Amino acid sequence: IGCDRSKNLVDICGEKHFQAFVCDALSVPIRSGSCDACISIAVIHHFSTAERRLATIRELARLLRPGGTALIYVWAMEQEYKNQKSKYLKEKNGNKNKDKEMNTGTAQRPLSDQGPDNTSQDSAWSDQLLKDLKDESCGTKPIADFRLPVHTNRTSFHSQDLLIPWHLKGGTKKKEESVDTVLLPGGSKELQELSPVFHRYYHVFCEGELEAVCRSLDCVRIQKSYYDQGNWCVILEKL
What we know:
tRNA binding, globular
């Protein structure tokens, strides 16, 4: 059984004849102790406070029967680990010939979770204020003015808390929606229409951070922890 916050993604599961429903990771409407195993992939790094990240893991543990296991993946601050670059960084070279895109506004409409826009190079600062931001040690500097940096895709992370541009592809604009434009290479004055760009919040985890959060719960134990292609991962067992 699958669940997701996005109705669009859940609808896709239904079209493929899988069982899935819409819910929040902080409150999953499934009976306690009823699951043999749970998987949380690329979810917990979207919660903006340490308390909420802990609460999602506690909720995951609640669903497990005694002896049940959970697999958790979160995005790592360390995209280059043991002298090896992650797939995320390596893929930058494959997109070097694409045009750089500037987003001059965002159209407000649903976004399907397709993955970061590989070509967005917006390194400006967001005006969105980050509340309850704590200085979590990872060799990073505190965020200036308590504002979130907008990450340049396919580059190393310089902050644990950031916004990442996501490009909505394949949609059609309504006449009243704003249109993003970009100057074409070679000094051409011709403008082309771009799909809207959205900014999604991420908290990327430092080495040891995910394990420390899990160890603060007395209802689980860590069976295994490891690094996998730019992600920190743990396998938990319900006690």
